[in-house]
Design a protein that fits this description.
The protein has helices at about 10-25, 40-50, 65-75, 90-105, 120-125, 145-150, 175-185, 215-220, 225-230, 245-260, 265-275, 280, 285-300, 325-340, 365-375, and strands at about 25, 85-90, 110-115, 130-135, 155-165, 190-195, 220-225, 240, 305, 315-320, 340, 345, 360. It is an alpha/beta fold. It folds into 2 domains: about 10-30 and about 285-375, Aspartate Aminotransferase, domain 1 (Alpha-Beta Complex), CATH 3.90.1150.10; about 40-280, Type I PLP-dependent aspartate aminotransferase-like (Major domain) (Aspartate Aminotransferase, domain 2, 3-Layer(aba) Sandwich). It is globular, with a radius of gyration of 20 Å. The structure holds 4'-deoxy-4'-aminopyridoxal-5'-phosphate and glutamine. Pfam families: Aminotran_1_2 (PF00155).
Length: about 375
Protein backbone atom coordinates (compact mmCIF):
# COMPACT_ATOMS: atom_id res chain seq x y z
CA UNK A 1 0.00 0.00 0.00
CA UNK A 2 0.98 3.61 -0.38
CA UNK A 3 1.89 4.37 3.23
CA UNK A 4 0.79 7.59 4.91
CA UNK A 5 3.79 7.50 7.25
CA UNK A 6 6.73 6.40 5.11
CA UNK A 7 9.36 7.56 7.61
CA UNK A 8 7.83 5.73 10.56
CA UNK A 9 8.83 2.30 11.82
CA UNK A 10 8.41 0.78 15.27
CA UNK A 11 9.32 3.34 17.95
CA UNK A 12 12.81 3.25 19.37
CA UNK A 13 11.34 2.68 22.86
CA UNK A 14 9.66 -0.56 21.79
CA UNK A 15 12.68 -1.67 19.77
CA UNK A 16 15.06 -1.16 22.68
CA UNK A 17 12.73 -2.65 25.32
CA UNK A 18 12.34 -5.78 23.20
CA UNK A 19 16.09 -6.00 22.69
CA UNK A 20 16.64 -5.58 26.45
CA UNK A 21 14.12 -8.32 27.26
CA UNK A 22 15.65 -10.65 24.64
CA UNK A 23 19.13 -10.27 26.13
CA UNK A 24 18.31 -10.00 29.82
CA UNK A 25 19.76 -6.48 29.92
CA UNK A 26 19.11 -3.91 32.65
CA UNK A 27 16.62 -1.66 30.87
CA UNK A 28 17.39 2.04 31.37
CA UNK A 29 15.97 2.75 27.90
CA UNK A 30 12.22 3.37 27.63
CA UNK A 31 11.15 5.88 30.27
CA UNK A 32 9.13 4.20 33.00
CA UNK A 33 9.57 3.76 36.75
CA UNK A 34 10.25 0.24 38.02
CA UNK A 35 8.85 0.99 41.48
CA UNK A 36 5.29 0.87 42.81
CA UNK A 37 2.58 3.46 42.43
CA UNK A 38 1.50 5.08 45.74
CA UNK A 39 -0.58 2.57 47.74
CA UNK A 40 -3.28 5.14 48.27
CA UNK A 41 -3.71 5.51 44.50
CA UNK A 42 -4.35 1.78 44.15
CA UNK A 43 -6.86 1.95 47.03
CA UNK A 44 -8.63 4.85 45.34
CA UNK A 45 -8.74 2.98 42.03
CA UNK A 46 -10.19 -0.06 43.75
CA UNK A 47 -12.73 2.09 45.54
CA UNK A 48 -13.77 3.84 42.31
CA UNK A 49 -14.46 0.52 40.62
CA UNK A 50 -16.36 -0.87 43.62
CA UNK A 51 -18.40 2.31 43.90
CA UNK A 52 -19.57 1.74 40.35
CA UNK A 53 -17.58 4.23 38.28
CA UNK A 54 -17.33 1.73 35.48
CA UNK A 55 -19.38 3.22 32.64
CA UNK A 56 -18.62 6.03 30.19
CA UNK A 57 -17.60 9.10 32.16
CA UNK A 58 -18.27 12.57 30.70
CA UNK A 59 -16.50 13.06 27.39
CA UNK A 60 -14.39 15.90 28.81
CA UNK A 61 -13.36 14.02 31.99
CA UNK A 62 -14.99 13.48 35.38
CA UNK A 63 -15.85 16.80 37.07
CA UNK A 64 -13.97 16.02 40.31
CA UNK A 65 -10.75 15.44 38.34
CA UNK A 66 -11.13 18.56 36.21
CA UNK A 67 -11.75 20.46 39.41
CA UNK A 68 -8.67 18.96 41.09
CA UNK A 69 -6.56 19.84 38.03
CA UNK A 70 -7.86 23.43 38.18
CA UNK A 71 -6.97 23.64 41.88
CA UNK A 72 -3.48 22.24 41.33
CA UNK A 73 -2.90 24.59 38.40
CA UNK A 74 -3.97 27.60 40.42
CA UNK A 75 -1.75 26.61 43.37
CA UNK A 76 1.30 26.11 41.20
CA UNK A 77 0.95 28.59 38.35
CA UNK A 78 -1.34 31.29 39.77
CA UNK A 79 -4.10 30.82 37.20
CA UNK A 80 -7.29 28.79 37.60
CA UNK A 81 -8.47 27.36 34.28
CA UNK A 82 -12.22 27.02 33.84
CA UNK A 83 -13.18 23.51 34.90
CA UNK A 84 -15.93 23.14 32.29
CA UNK A 85 -14.57 25.02 29.32
CA UNK A 86 -10.79 24.70 29.48
CA UNK A 87 -9.76 21.27 30.82
CA UNK A 88 -10.08 17.99 28.93
CA UNK A 89 -8.91 14.64 30.29
CA UNK A 90 -7.28 12.39 27.70
CA UNK A 91 -5.79 8.94 27.26
CA UNK A 92 -2.29 10.07 28.10
CA UNK A 93 -0.37 13.08 26.86
CA UNK A 94 0.07 11.25 23.56
CA UNK A 95 -3.64 11.47 22.78
CA UNK A 96 -3.70 15.12 23.86
CA UNK A 97 -0.79 15.98 21.55
CA UNK A 98 -2.48 14.22 18.65
CA UNK A 99 -5.80 15.99 19.33
CA UNK A 100 -4.26 19.45 19.70
CA UNK A 101 -2.44 19.11 16.40
CA UNK A 102 -5.49 17.78 14.58
CA UNK A 103 -7.73 20.42 16.16
CA UNK A 104 -5.95 23.35 14.54
CA UNK A 105 -3.28 22.24 12.07
CA UNK A 106 -4.54 22.06 8.48
CA UNK A 107 -3.21 20.39 5.34
CA UNK A 108 -0.32 22.46 3.98
CA UNK A 109 0.42 24.16 7.32
CA UNK A 110 3.82 24.12 9.00
CA UNK A 111 4.57 23.22 12.60
CA UNK A 112 7.87 24.22 14.18
CA UNK A 113 9.49 21.42 16.17
CA UNK A 114 12.68 21.88 18.19
CA UNK A 115 15.10 18.98 17.65
CA UNK A 116 15.74 16.67 19.42
CA UNK A 117 11.99 16.15 19.94
CA UNK A 118 9.79 13.44 21.42
CA UNK A 119 8.88 10.92 18.78
CA UNK A 120 5.08 11.28 18.64
CA UNK A 121 5.10 14.89 17.42
CA UNK A 122 6.03 14.53 13.78
CA UNK A 123 3.76 11.59 12.82
CA UNK A 124 0.74 13.50 14.16
CA UNK A 125 1.79 16.51 12.07
CA UNK A 126 2.26 14.32 9.00
CA UNK A 127 -1.17 12.72 9.43
CA UNK A 128 -2.70 16.21 9.51
CA UNK A 129 -1.19 16.76 6.04
CA UNK A 130 1.10 19.40 7.47
CA UNK A 131 4.88 19.67 7.54
CA UNK A 132 7.21 19.66 10.52
CA UNK A 133 9.87 22.38 10.26
CA UNK A 134 12.78 21.27 12.42
CA UNK A 135 14.87 23.84 14.29
CA UNK A 136 17.87 22.41 16.15
CA UNK A 137 18.42 23.12 19.83
CA UNK A 138 21.96 24.03 20.86
CA UNK A 139 23.89 20.72 20.64
CA UNK A 140 25.75 21.38 23.91
CA UNK A 141 23.05 22.88 26.16
CA UNK A 142 19.79 21.93 24.36
CA UNK A 143 18.68 25.55 24.70
CA UNK A 144 16.57 27.01 21.89
CA UNK A 145 18.07 29.63 19.59
CA UNK A 146 15.00 31.88 19.30
CA UNK A 147 16.47 33.75 16.36
CA UNK A 148 16.51 30.47 14.45
CA UNK A 149 12.91 29.85 15.49
CA UNK A 150 11.99 33.33 14.31
CA UNK A 151 13.72 32.69 10.99
CA UNK A 152 11.74 29.45 10.61
CA UNK A 153 8.37 31.23 10.93
CA UNK A 154 6.58 31.55 7.59
CA UNK A 155 3.06 32.57 6.55
CA UNK A 156 2.20 28.87 6.76
CA UNK A 157 3.35 28.40 10.36
CA UNK A 158 0.37 27.25 12.41
CA UNK A 159 1.95 25.93 15.58
CA UNK A 160 5.14 25.95 17.64
CA UNK A 161 5.81 22.98 19.91
CA UNK A 162 7.87 23.30 23.08
CA UNK A 163 8.69 20.78 25.81
CA UNK A 164 10.05 21.65 29.25
CA UNK A 165 11.50 19.83 31.10
CA UNK A 166 12.72 18.35 27.88
CA UNK A 167 12.79 14.76 26.73
CA UNK A 168 15.48 13.57 26.02
CA UNK A 169 17.87 16.21 27.43
CA UNK A 170 16.24 17.39 30.68
CA UNK A 171 16.82 21.02 29.65
CA UNK A 172 14.33 23.56 30.95
CA UNK A 173 12.97 26.76 29.47
CA UNK A 174 13.50 29.89 31.56
CA UNK A 175 11.14 32.77 32.25
CA UNK A 176 13.12 34.76 29.69
CA UNK A 177 12.52 32.00 27.12
CA UNK A 178 8.78 32.15 27.77
CA UNK A 179 8.76 35.94 27.43
CA UNK A 180 10.65 35.57 24.17
CA UNK A 181 8.13 33.02 22.89
CA UNK A 182 5.29 35.39 23.83
CA UNK A 183 7.01 38.14 21.84
CA UNK A 184 7.63 35.88 18.85
CA UNK A 185 4.01 34.78 18.65
CA UNK A 186 2.48 38.20 19.39
CA UNK A 187 0.25 39.40 16.53
CA UNK A 188 0.54 36.08 14.71
CA UNK A 189 -2.05 33.33 14.34
CA UNK A 190 0.45 30.75 15.60
CA UNK A 191 -0.68 28.38 18.33
CA UNK A 192 1.66 27.01 20.97
CA UNK A 193 1.69 23.41 22.16
CA UNK A 194 3.50 23.21 25.49
CA UNK A 195 4.33 19.63 26.47
CA UNK A 196 4.76 19.79 30.24
CA UNK A 197 4.55 16.11 31.20
CA UNK A 198 7.63 16.44 33.46
CA UNK A 199 6.31 19.63 35.13
CA UNK A 200 6.84 18.33 38.67
CA UNK A 201 10.26 16.78 38.08
CA UNK A 202 12.50 19.83 38.39
CA UNK A 203 15.73 20.09 40.35
CA UNK A 204 18.04 22.40 42.29
CA UNK A 205 15.29 24.83 43.28
CA UNK A 206 14.41 25.70 39.69
CA UNK A 207 10.88 26.77 38.82
CA UNK A 208 8.85 25.10 36.08
CA UNK A 209 7.84 27.81 33.64
CA UNK A 210 4.41 26.60 32.63
CA UNK A 211 2.89 28.48 29.71
CA UNK A 212 -0.08 28.91 32.07
CA UNK A 213 1.90 31.48 34.06
CA UNK A 214 1.94 33.80 31.04
CA UNK A 215 -1.40 35.49 30.22
CA UNK A 216 -0.35 36.30 26.69
CA UNK A 217 0.69 32.71 26.02
CA UNK A 218 -2.38 31.20 27.68
CA UNK A 219 -4.59 32.68 24.96
CA UNK A 220 -2.96 30.59 22.26
CA UNK A 221 -1.61 27.54 24.06
CA UNK A 222 -2.52 23.90 24.52
CA UNK A 223 -0.80 22.95 27.79
CA UNK A 224 -0.46 19.18 28.00
CA UNK A 225 0.50 17.01 30.95
CA UNK A 226 0.25 13.39 32.08
CA UNK A 227 -0.36 11.59 35.35
CA UNK A 228 1.83 8.73 34.15
CA UNK A 229 5.01 10.63 35.08
CA UNK A 230 3.66 12.13 38.29
CA UNK A 231 2.19 8.97 39.83
CA UNK A 232 4.65 6.34 38.54
CA UNK A 233 1.97 4.74 36.35
CA UNK A 234 2.93 5.19 32.72
CA UNK A 235 0.69 2.24 31.82
CA UNK A 236 -2.50 3.92 33.00
CA UNK A 237 -2.38 6.47 30.19
CA UNK A 238 -4.29 9.41 31.65
CA UNK A 239 -3.29 12.95 30.73
CA UNK A 240 -4.99 16.24 30.09
CA UNK A 241 -5.03 19.39 28.04
CA UNK A 242 -5.65 22.92 29.30
CA UNK A 243 -6.54 25.44 26.59
CA UNK A 244 -8.79 28.50 26.25
CA UNK A 245 -12.48 27.76 25.56
CA UNK A 246 -12.38 28.19 21.78
CA UNK A 247 -9.31 25.94 21.48
CA UNK A 248 -10.71 23.40 23.94
CA UNK A 249 -13.92 23.25 21.88
CA UNK A 250 -11.92 22.29 18.78
CA UNK A 251 -9.73 19.94 20.80
CA UNK A 252 -12.84 18.16 22.10
CA UNK A 253 -14.20 17.63 18.60
CA UNK A 254 -11.15 15.50 17.89
CA UNK A 255 -11.11 13.85 21.33
CA UNK A 256 -14.75 12.78 21.15
CA UNK A 257 -14.28 10.90 17.90
CA UNK A 258 -10.81 9.67 18.72
CA UNK A 259 -11.56 7.93 22.03
CA UNK A 260 -14.73 9.78 23.22
CA UNK A 261 -13.72 9.49 26.88
CA UNK A 262 -11.03 7.83 28.96
CA UNK A 263 -10.76 5.21 31.74
CA UNK A 264 -13.21 6.34 34.43
CA UNK A 265 -11.88 4.61 37.59
CA UNK A 266 -8.41 6.14 37.23
CA UNK A 267 -9.90 9.59 36.80
CA UNK A 268 -11.66 9.24 40.15
CA UNK A 269 -8.49 7.92 41.75
CA UNK A 270 -6.35 10.83 40.50
CA UNK A 271 -8.98 13.33 41.65
CA UNK A 272 -8.81 11.89 45.16
CA UNK A 273 -4.99 11.84 45.16
CA UNK A 274 -4.57 15.39 43.92
CA UNK A 275 -6.89 16.75 46.57
CA UNK A 276 -5.74 14.59 49.48
CA UNK A 277 -1.99 14.54 48.95
CA UNK A 278 -0.62 17.58 47.16
CA UNK A 279 2.68 16.68 48.87
CA UNK A 280 3.07 13.89 46.34
CA UNK A 281 3.59 16.18 43.38
CA UNK A 282 5.26 18.87 45.52
CA UNK A 283 7.94 16.42 46.63
CA UNK A 284 8.44 14.68 43.30
CA UNK A 285 11.36 16.92 42.35
CA UNK A 286 13.23 16.09 45.56
CA UNK A 287 12.42 12.40 45.13
CA UNK A 288 13.95 12.32 41.65
CA UNK A 289 16.79 14.69 42.50
CA UNK A 290 18.09 12.13 45.00
CA UNK A 291 17.98 9.49 42.26
CA UNK A 292 19.68 11.79 39.77
CA UNK A 293 22.47 12.68 42.18
CA UNK A 294 23.10 9.08 43.18
CA UNK A 295 23.21 7.94 39.54
CA UNK A 296 25.49 10.77 38.41
CA UNK A 297 27.90 10.04 41.22
CA UNK A 298 28.00 6.41 40.13
CA UNK A 299 28.45 7.32 36.47
CA UNK A 300 31.56 9.32 37.35
CA UNK A 301 33.15 5.95 38.14
CA UNK A 302 32.57 4.79 34.54
CA UNK A 303 33.85 5.93 31.15
CA UNK A 304 30.50 7.52 30.38
CA UNK A 305 30.40 11.30 30.84
CA UNK A 306 27.11 12.54 32.31
CA UNK A 307 25.64 15.83 31.04
CA UNK A 308 23.77 18.22 33.37
CA UNK A 309 20.14 17.26 34.14
CA UNK A 310 17.99 20.24 35.18
CA UNK A 311 14.69 18.28 35.09
CA UNK A 312 12.87 15.14 33.97
CA UNK A 313 14.05 11.59 34.65
CA UNK A 314 16.60 11.05 31.91
CA UNK A 315 20.37 11.30 32.10
CA UNK A 316 22.27 11.97 28.88
CA UNK A 317 25.72 10.44 28.75
CA UNK A 318 28.56 10.92 26.27
CA UNK A 319 30.16 7.59 25.32
CA UNK A 320 32.95 8.90 23.09
CA UNK A 321 35.59 7.59 25.53
CA UNK A 322 34.19 4.07 25.01
CA UNK A 323 33.33 3.75 21.34
CA UNK A 324 33.26 5.36 17.90
CA UNK A 325 30.06 3.57 16.93
CA UNK A 326 27.00 5.56 15.92
CA UNK A 327 24.47 5.84 18.72
CA UNK A 328 22.05 3.18 17.51
CA UNK A 329 24.83 0.64 16.97
CA UNK A 330 26.35 1.59 20.31
CA UNK A 331 23.02 0.97 22.08
CA UNK A 332 22.66 -2.43 20.39
CA UNK A 333 26.19 -3.34 21.41
CA UNK A 334 25.68 -2.08 24.95
CA UNK A 335 22.54 -4.19 25.31
CA UNK A 336 23.80 -7.36 23.66
CA UNK A 337 27.42 -7.37 24.82
CA UNK A 338 27.31 -5.41 28.08
CA UNK A 339 23.78 -6.02 29.36
CA UNK A 340 22.60 -2.41 29.77
CA UNK A 341 19.98 -0.78 27.57
CA UNK A 342 19.97 2.93 26.72
CA UNK A 343 18.14 4.98 24.08
CA UNK A 344 20.09 6.49 21.14
CA UNK A 345 19.43 10.17 20.49
CA UNK A 346 19.36 10.11 16.69
CA UNK A 347 15.69 8.99 16.43
CA UNK A 348 14.75 12.30 18.13
CA UNK A 349 16.17 14.29 15.19
CA UNK A 350 15.38 14.96 11.56
CA UNK A 351 19.13 15.42 11.01
CA UNK A 352 21.18 14.12 13.96
CA UNK A 353 24.51 15.90 14.52
CA UNK A 354 27.00 13.51 12.92
CA UNK A 355 29.66 13.78 15.63
CA UNK A 356 27.25 13.37 18.55
CA UNK A 357 27.95 10.39 20.80
CA UNK A 358 25.12 10.59 23.31
CA UNK A 359 22.72 8.09 24.82
CA UNK A 360 19.76 8.56 27.18
CA UNK A 361 19.52 6.60 30.43
CA UNK A 362 16.36 6.57 32.56
CA UNK A 363 16.92 6.95 36.32
CA UNK A 364 13.28 6.40 37.37
CA UNK A 365 14.48 3.13 38.89
CA UNK A 366 15.05 1.42 42.20
CA UNK A 367 18.57 1.70 43.62
CA UNK A 368 19.08 -2.03 43.01
CA UNK A 369 18.33 -1.58 39.29
CA UNK A 370 20.74 1.34 39.02
CA UNK A 371 23.41 -0.55 40.96
CA UNK A 372 23.10 -3.54 38.62
CA UNK A 373 23.47 -1.25 35.61
CA UNK A 374 26.46 0.58 37.10
CA UNK A 375 28.24 -2.67 37.91
CA UNK A 376 28.05 -3.50 34.19
CA UNK A 377 28.89 -0.01 33.01
CA UNK A 378 32.03 0.02 35.15
CA UNK A 379 33.37 -2.74 32.89
CA UNK A 380 33.17 -0.67 29.70
N1 LIG B 1 5.65 13.90 25.90
C1 LIG B 1 6.85 13.57 26.40
C2 LIG B 1 7.95 14.56 26.35
C3 LIG B 1 7.04 12.31 26.96
O1 LIG B 1 8.25 11.98 27.44
C4 LIG B 1 5.98 11.41 27.02
C5 LIG B 1 6.11 10.04 27.64
N2 LIG B 1 7.30 9.43 27.44
C6 LIG B 1 4.74 11.79 26.49
C7 LIG B 1 4.62 13.04 25.94
C8 LIG B 1 3.59 10.86 26.47
O2 LIG B 1 2.95 10.73 27.69
P1 LIG B 1 1.81 9.64 27.94
O3 LIG B 1 2.49 8.37 28.28
O4 LIG B 1 0.99 10.20 29.04
O5 LIG B 1 1.03 9.51 26.67
N1 LIG C 1 7.94 8.60 26.87
C1 LIG C 1 8.73 7.43 27.10
C2 LIG C 1 10.19 7.72 26.80
O1 LIG C 1 10.53 8.77 26.33
C3 LIG C 1 8.34 6.28 26.21
C4 LIG C 1 6.91 6.14 25.88
C5 LIG C 1 6.74 5.11 24.81
O2 LIG C 1 7.30 4.05 24.88
N2 LIG C 1 6.03 5.47 23.81
O3 LIG C 1 10.98 6.85 27.03
Amino acid sequence: IETKLPKVGTTIFTVMSQLAAGHGAVNLGQGFPDFSVPGRLVDELDRAMREGHNQYPPMTGVPSLRNAIATKTERLYGHRPDTDAEITVTSGATEAIFNAIHAVVRAGDEVIVLDPAYDCYEPAIDLAGARAVHVPLDPATFAPDWQKVKDAISPRTRMLMINSPHNPSGAMLSAADMETVAGLLRDTGIFLLSDEVYEHIVFDGARHESALRYPELRERTFVISSFGKTYHCTGWKIGYCIAPPALSAEFRKVHQYNVFCTFAPAQHAFAAMLDAEPEHYEQLGAFYQAKRDRFREQLLGTKLRPLPVPGGYFQLADYSAVSDLGDFEFCRWLTIEKGVTAIPLSPFYETPPSDQRLVRLCFAKNDATMDAAIERLQKL
